[in-house]
C-alpha cells in the first residue's frame, strides 16, 4: 500500500498554522512593551504561516483520506520535528542571535516540555522571548497530552493500547467523540493554567512571571524567567508550583472524570496512587538525607526535597538551589528518578508509572512461578486484566528506552563529556526533564557549555523521548518504507 | 519442615568439608615458607571441618531423599552463604587483623568470583593468604558453573529454563548430571593448567602464574599485585590473561562438545556470536578512542582496550592500565558492558548475553508488530520472555537501591553507580578513580562493605534464589 501523504501534510500544515498564530502573542507583547523583537516574530509568522498554508492547500486533492497506521506514525513524528524547527525561528533571527544549534535546542527543549536551556541571564531577557519559551512549553504540553490520548493508544506504543478510549479491537475511536474529548482536555488545561497564574500573582509574581510559570508548570516544562528558576521567587510560589507540577504529571483524562463520578475516580486510579506514593517516598528519603547530613534544618530540608523531587519526578526541571551539591545519595536518587516519570496521558516524560507497575507485576509473577511452576497468574491494573500482548509491548518499550539512554550516553561521551555527565544528560534528555547532574549540566550549570555536537544529540534525545521512542524508530525502520 | 531442611544441612556440611580441605593447602604453603599464618589456617580448617562433618553425620542418608523445588532453592542459598562465612574465618584469624566486615567482604568477593579487595599492598602479602584468595575464586567459579548448568535451569530462574538438559524426568537425570559435573570439573582443571603454563611461558613466576590462572578461569580477578596485571608490564602476559578471560566468559558446554568432537553443535551455539560481537564492538571503539584521542600506538591501544573490555564484560576485574583515566567514552562503554556480562553457563556475571539477546529479540518483534499488528514472527516463548522481563526489572531495582545506599555511604554519583553495577555483576572494581581497578575498597565505610557483600551474593545467586526465600508462601507447608 502506498503511503498517503495528504493527511501527513494536513497535520503538519495545521501545526505550523497554530504555531504561527501563537507567535502573534509575543509579537503583540513585544510591540506593547519593548519593541526589540517584533521583526523576528513577524518573519517567523510569515514563514510558518506561508509554509503551513501551502501544506494544507496542497493536500486538497479529491478523494477520502486514509489515515492508516503508517500515516499516523509519519504525521506524529514529522509534526513534532517540523514544529521544533519553526519554533526556533524567533530565537535565531531576533537580537538574541542564538546560533542555529542553540535556537533549535531551545525550541525543541520548549516544545518537548524538557526545560533545558542554553540561554543565560534570563532575568534580563526580553519579555516577548520569555513568553515565547513559556508558550512553547504550554503548546508542547497540550500537544503531547492530545497525542498520548488520541494517537499513541491507536499506535499501540509501549502498552499504550491499555488507554484506548473504547475497548473495540479495531482501535478507531469515533472522530466526534475524540474531538469532544480534545476540546474538554484543552478547556481543563487552560483552566488549570489560569488558576495557577492567578495563584502565582497572589504569591507575589508580576503578570509576565505568573503567566510564564503557570504555562511551564502545568505542562511540566520547566522554563523559568530567572536563572535561579523558582529559587528566585517566594516560598508560596514554590508550593503553588509543586501542586501545579503534580497536577501536570497526572493523567489528564482523569481530571474530566470527577465531574461525572466524583473525586474518587482520580484517587481510585492505581497509576495516580503509585505516582503520588513515589513522590512522597522520594521526597521523604531526600529530606532524611539532607537533614541527617547536617546541611539543612528539618523544615528547609523538607521544602527543598519536596520541591526538587517533584520537579524531577514530574519531569518538569525547575530547581530550587543546586541539588547536585547535596552529595552522593541525592545525586543517585535524582538520576534514578529521571527514569521514572509521571503518569501516562500527562505532559510528563520518562518511562511512566503504569509501565513500572506492569514490570513490577511481571517480576512478582516470575517469583511466584518459581515456586508454583504450573500456577496461573495474571497481571491486573485497576481491576482490569492486562493481556499478554500489552506486557510484551511494555517490555519492548522499556528495553528500547534503556538502549536509547545507553546509545545517547555513548554519543555524548564521544563528544568529550565525562561519563557521569553523559549518562545523566542522556537520561535527562530522553526523560524530558531538563537539568542533569554534575557541574556542567547540573542545576547550577547551563547547557550553553556543552559541545555543539552534544547539543544536537540532546535535541534528538528530547524528541525521541517525547515521542515515546518507538514512534520515531518505527518511521526509520525498513518495514515502514517497504510497501 | 524439619525433615525438609535435612538435605540443605547435608549439602552445607559437604560444602564446608570441601572448604576445610581447601584451607589445608594455604596452611601447608605457609608452613613451608615458615610463616606463622599456617596456624590460623589450620585452626580455621579444623573448625570448619568439625562443623561440616557434624552436619554430614547428623543428616546422613539425606542425599537419598528426592529434592523438591523449595529444597533446592534453600540449599543453594544456604550453601553459598555458609561457604562465604566459613571462607572468612582464615582472614579473620590471620595476622592481618581484619575486622569482621573486611573479612566477610574479602571472602564473599572470593566465593562469588567478584574480585574486589580490601587488602592493601598485595605484593607483600604472605603466600598463604594469596593462595587462599585465589582458591576461593577458583572454587567459587566451579561452584557457580555447576549451579548455572545443572541447578538454575531446573529452577527456571530468569529464563534459564531454555538451557535445561535434554532429558528431564526419569531416573536417568541424576547419573547424567553427575557425569556432566565430572566432565565440567575436568575441563575447568584442564583450562586452569593450560593458562598457568602459558602464563609461565609468558614470563610469570610459577606461583603467581598458578594463582592468576585460577582467578582468570573463574572470572574472579584477585591478583597477587596491587597493580593488577599492569604490574608485570609484559604484553605476552596481557594476551594470555585476555585469552583466558574470553574463554572463561564463554559457555562451557562448548568445550565439552569440542572434546566429544561434536563440532557442529559447538559452532551452532547461539550465545557465542553475540558475546564475541559485543566484545569486538567495544574493543574497536575503545581502541580508536585511545589511538586518536590519546595518541597511543595502535597495537598497545588494541591490547589495553581488548583487555579492559574482556575484563569488564566477563566480570573478571583485572586491569593493565587504570581505565578510569581514559576519559568519557571508554568509561561509558565499560559501564554498559558491566551490565551485559558474559554467557550463561560460564562463571561470568551480569545480566548475561542470552538475556540481552532475548530482550533484543522481543524488542525487535514489538517494533515489527507496531507496523504489522497481525504479522507472524518467530518469537521467544511467552514464559521465557516474561521471566527475562522480571529478571531485568529486579536487576534494575537492585541496582537502584544499592547505588542509592552507596551514595548515602559517601560515594559520589559515578562511583556509587558504577560500584553498584560492578558488585551486582560480580565484576570487582568500580569505574571511578575512587574505587577503580588500581585502588581498593579498604577506605569504604563499614556498612558499605556489608552492603556490597550482600549485593555480590545477591548478584551471584541470580537474585531470585535469595528473593524466593523472602516469600511467605515459601515457608508455608
Comma- or semicolon-separated keywords:
heterodimer, A: 483 residues, mainly alpha, two-stranded antiparallel ribbon, 2 strands, globular, B: 477 residues, 66% helix
Please provide a brief summary of the model.
The complex is a heterodimer of chains A (483) and B (477). Chain A is built from 21 helices and two strands.
Structure overview:
The complex is a heterodimer of chains A (483) and B (477). With 483 residues, chain A is an all-alpha fold. Chain A has helices spanning 5-32, 38-58, 69-93, 100-111, 127-155, 175-202, 207-218, 235-248, 252-256, 258-261, 264-267, 270-292, 298-313, 328-340, 353-371, 388-414, 419-430, 438-441, 452-466, 470-476, 478-481, and strands at 379-381, 384-386. In chain A, strands 1-2 form a two-stranded antiparallel sheet. In chain A, a hairpin with a 2-residue loop joins strand 1 (379-381) and strand 2. Chain A is globular and about 70 Å long. Mean pLDDT of chain A is 88; it is low at 167-171. Chain B has 477 residues and is an all-alpha fold. Chain B has helices at residues 6-32, 37-58, 69-93, 100-111, 127-155, 173-201, 206-217, 235-249, 253-259, 263-267, 271-293, 298-313, 328-340, 353-371, 382-408, 413-424, 446-460, 464-467, 472-475. In chain B, helix 2 (37-58) runs antiparallel to helix 3 (69-93). Mean pLDDT of chain B is 89; it is low at 167-171. The interface between A and B is large, with 66 and 63 residues.
Q: Structural class from helices and strands of chain A?
A: mainly alpha
Mean of residue pLDDT values of chain A: 88
SS elements, strand count of chain B: 0
Question: What is the assembly state of the chains in this entry?
Answer: heterodimer
The coarse silhouette of chain A is: globular
The strands making up the biggest β-sheet of chain A line up spatially as 1-2
Q: Biggest interface between protein chains, with counts per chain? A: A-B, 66 and 63 residues
Order of helices and strands of chain B: HHHHHHHHHHHHHHHHHHH
Question: How would you sum up the major sheet of chain B?
Answer: none
Helical fraction of chain B: 55-70%
Sheet with most strands of chain A: 2 strands, antiparallel
Kindly state the percentage of residues in helix of chain A. 55-70%
Radius of gyration of chain A from the CA trace?
A: 22 Å
In DSSP terms, counting alpha (H) and pi (I) runs of 4 or more, how many helices of chain B? 19
Low-confidence stretches of chain B: 167-171
Summed up, the helix count of chain A is 21
Sheet-strand content of chain B, in percent, reads under 5%
Mean pLDDT of chain B: 89
